[in-house]
């Protein structure tokens, strides 16, 4: 029902405030779009820079590898698994761990770890501010760690480096923390896209692990950055799939069910892997030595494993391709699965610098291939093929350990170019995600920061305040006064009316326009002469909302104007009502109580009582009542 102020029975227009506010809203919208273009441009430039940095990081890893394992200076990739160092190979990862410890001690401890959790923590608790020194310390420390045999991938360090670069650029400009978060996420995911050529997966990674939102203002800059990163991958690396595998055919329904079962088992395996990684980390923290020695001790463990199983050393992307080929012997799959995991868990738990994605893919792919081989051997009629079993194992491991569901599926498709694997991936990742969600409180990405008391969002539901409009609610009884009323008039009203329950009064000026509010305390105060016009007591409210605007918009306006109430002005310029913080909190509480019941709207019936004071001076009392 529309609320109209009457004078002598004739409707009177309240104000041009809503019209001016509409103009301001249009101006703000144009400003926001220009701002979005500016942020997007910055993100594209950062993505171009991080593409170059990604290539330089790979070169640097190759240089360190060739120097330590072969004694040559070269940017050509040579696997550390082919070294002829004998027992001396045990010391090389320990030396690398010691160098990383020195960089952490005299540079920044933030270089320790695998990158994504640290970026998440800065987004959640530090307004997306990362130390600028991480931009060069992280890739340098990671190159040393991986180049000396650390069982990590290059993607974690480049994601951390991209995030640090984005955050650093964001700190140079006067932008909001949310905009800095977008730039950070754009830099991080552009790095992933530059390494793997997987822009869609990188966008999903931003949504699921960094942005914690889905909106045009965040997706557009991130998407442009990821596309730029993918272009950098094609320019500096190769245009084909990162992990080539044999072409696969569409699976049968029985095979689909079997792949889903494999995903379920891999999900359970991901739980154990996450627990063991942090169990080992806790073990290092209990050692009676300074933390700078932990990576050295961890490096010795990596070296011992690398001596017996050389293919566990270094990045090992070729191991993933070998597993996906479907021709790897079962005994090699078993040793790769177990010893790659053991080497990686020791290195990561020791606090050195590296990533998690490539090791998880290797372990999951090997586990999937092992399960596929067993099923194929005992149930040949299942239709399971080992390459798809390895692919779903690889993807399900990442989905279960990180709970990045969409990222895992898109990544597997983009890096292998096998579209026929979509349904098996969907079934396996869903099963793995289901297990992770029900049985694991935190993921491998969030466990560390959760221990520090940082809560990580895991649900991206629409804001309740976005679902409600200003016209849907009303709150306290609102008393509307004319500016010509005196303090004595209001005091008499308070004495004679027992229905009034309000702490403020709404005031209209002589043109029946909203002028502001006065408080009950001011009216009853003895500091004012009874004949004082209440217009002298007015507290101006510089903003208003339309009935169709959301409560979120109303809250933002109230916060910016630092007011507790805001008028609701309808399209025909009449005062439709008054909105208070109490109204908003009450409606929010009611929605929570109703547990998101469908079509649960707060419907109100309004009654208007008109009280005349001194001829033309008008005092209108609006009373609201919920419909039962």
Can you lay out the helices and strands and say which pair or pack?
Blueprint: E1 6-7, E2 10-11, H1 17-70, H2 91-106, H3 116-125, H4 134-147, H5 155-172, H6 177-196, H7 199-211, H8 216-236, H9 253-285, H10 294-308, H11 317-324, H12 330-349, H13 357-378, H14 386-402, H15 405-416, H16 422-439, H17 447-451, H18 464-467, E3 478-482, H19 487-496, E4 504-508, E5 514-519, H20 520-524, H21 551-561, E6 565-569, E7 575-580, H22 581-594, E8 604-612, E9 618-626
Parallel strand pairs: 3-4
Antiparallel strand pairs: 1-2, 3-9, 4-5, 6-7, 8-9
Helix pairs in contact: 1-4, 1-5, 1-6, 1-8, 2-4, 2-10, 4-5, 5-6, 6-7, 6-8, 7-8, 7-15, 9-12, 9-13, 9-14, 9-16, 10-12, 11-13, 12-13, 13-14, 14-15, 14-16, 15-16
Structure description:
This protein is of the alpha+beta class. The protein folds into 2 domains: 26-451, Clc chloride channel (Orthogonal Bundle); 463-626, CBS-domain, CATH 3.10.580.10. The chain has 22 helices and 9 strands. The protein has helices spanning 17-70, 91-106, 116-125, 134-147, 155-172, 177-196, 199-211, 216-236, 253-285, 294-308, 317-324, 330-349, 357-378, 386-402, 405-416, 422-439, 447-451, 464-467, 487-496, 520-524, 551-561, 581-594; strands at 6-7, 10-11, 478-482, 504-508, 514-519, 565-569, 575-580, 604-612, 618-626. The strands form 3 sheets. A 5-stranded mixed sheet has the order 5-4-3-9-8. A two-stranded antiparallel sheet has the order 1-2. The longest helix has 54 residues, at 17-70. It is elongated and about 100 Å long. The chain starts with 5 loop residues before the first strand and ends with a strand.
């Amino acid at each position: 029902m529309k609320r109209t102020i009457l004078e002598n029975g004739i409707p009177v227009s309240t104000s041009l405030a809503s019209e001016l506010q509409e103009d301001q809203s249009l101006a703000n919208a144009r400003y926001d779009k220009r701002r979005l273009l500016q942020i997007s441009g910055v993100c594209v430039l950062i993505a171009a820079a991080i593409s170059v940095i990604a290539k330089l990081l790979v070169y640097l890893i190759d240089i360190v590898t060739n120097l330590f394992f072969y004694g040559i200076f070269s940017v050509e990739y040579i696997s550390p698994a082919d070294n002829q160092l004998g027992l001396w190979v045990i010391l090389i990862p320990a030396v690398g761990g010691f160098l990383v410890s020195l960089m952490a001690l005299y540079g920044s401890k933030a270089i320790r770890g695998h990158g994504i959790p640290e970026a998440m923590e800065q987004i959640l608790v530090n307004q997306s501010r990362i130390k600028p020194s991480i931009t060069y310390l992280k890739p340098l420390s990671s190159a040393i760690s991986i180049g000396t045999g650390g069982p990590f991938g290059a993607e974690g360090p480049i994601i951390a480096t991209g995030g640090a670069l984005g955050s650093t650029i964001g700190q140079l400009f006067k932008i909001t923390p949310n905009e800095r978060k977008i730039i950070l996420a754009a830099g991080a995911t552009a790095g992933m896209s530059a390494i793997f050529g997987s822009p869609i997966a990188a966008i999903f990674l931003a949504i699921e692990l960094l942005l914690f939102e889905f909106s045009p203002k965040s997706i557009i800059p991130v998407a442009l950055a990821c596309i730029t990163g993918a272009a950098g991958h094609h320019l500096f690396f190769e245009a084909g799939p990162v992990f080539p595998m044999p072409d696969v055919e569409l699976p049968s329904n029985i095979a689909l069910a079997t792949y889903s079962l494999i995903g379920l088992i891999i999900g359970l395996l991901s739980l154990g892997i996450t627990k063991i990684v942090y169990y080992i980390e806790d073990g290092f923290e209990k050692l009676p030595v300074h933390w700078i020695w932990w990576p050295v001790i961890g490096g010795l463990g990596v070296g011992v494993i690398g001596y017996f199983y050389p293919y566990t050393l270094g990045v090992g992307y070729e191991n993933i391709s070998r597993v996906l080929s479907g021709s790897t012997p079962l005994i090699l799959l078993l040793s790769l699965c177990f010893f790659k995991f053991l080497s990686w868990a020791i290195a990561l738990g020791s606090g050195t610098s590296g990533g998690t994605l490539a090791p998880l893919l290797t372990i999951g792919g090997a586990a999937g291939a092992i399960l596929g081989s067993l099923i194929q051997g005992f149930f040949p009629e299942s239709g399971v093929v080992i390459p798809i079993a390895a692919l779903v194992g690889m993807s399900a491991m990442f989905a279960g350990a990180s709970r990045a569901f969409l990222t895992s599926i898109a990544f597997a498709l983009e890096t292998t170019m096998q579209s026929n694997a979509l349904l098996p991936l969907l079934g396996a990742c869903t099963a793995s995600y289901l297990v992770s969600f029900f049985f694991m409180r935190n993921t491998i990405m969030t466990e560390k920061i959760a221990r520090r008391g940082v809560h990580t969002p895991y649900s991206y539901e629409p804001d309740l305040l976005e679902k409600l409009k200003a016209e849907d609610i009303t709150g306290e009884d609102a008393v509307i006064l004319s500016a010509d009323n005196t303090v004595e008039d209001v005091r008499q009203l308070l004495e004679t009316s027992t229905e009034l329950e309000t702490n403020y009064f709404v005031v209209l000026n002589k043109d029946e326009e909203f002028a502001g509010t006065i408080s009950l305390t001011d009216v009853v105060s003895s500091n004012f002469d009874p004949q004082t016009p209440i217009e002298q007591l007015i507290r101006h409210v510089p903003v208003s909302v339309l009935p169709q605007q959301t409560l979120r918009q109303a809250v933002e306006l109230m916060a910016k104007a630092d007011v507790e109430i805001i008028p609701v002005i309808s399209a025909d310029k009449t005062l439709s009502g008054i909105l208070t913080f109490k109204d908003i909190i009450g409606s929010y509480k009611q929605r929570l109580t109703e547990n998101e019941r469908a079509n649960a709207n707060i419907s109100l019936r309004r009654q208007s009582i008109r009280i005349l004071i001194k001829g033309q001076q008008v005092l209108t009392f609006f009373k609201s009542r919920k419909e039962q």
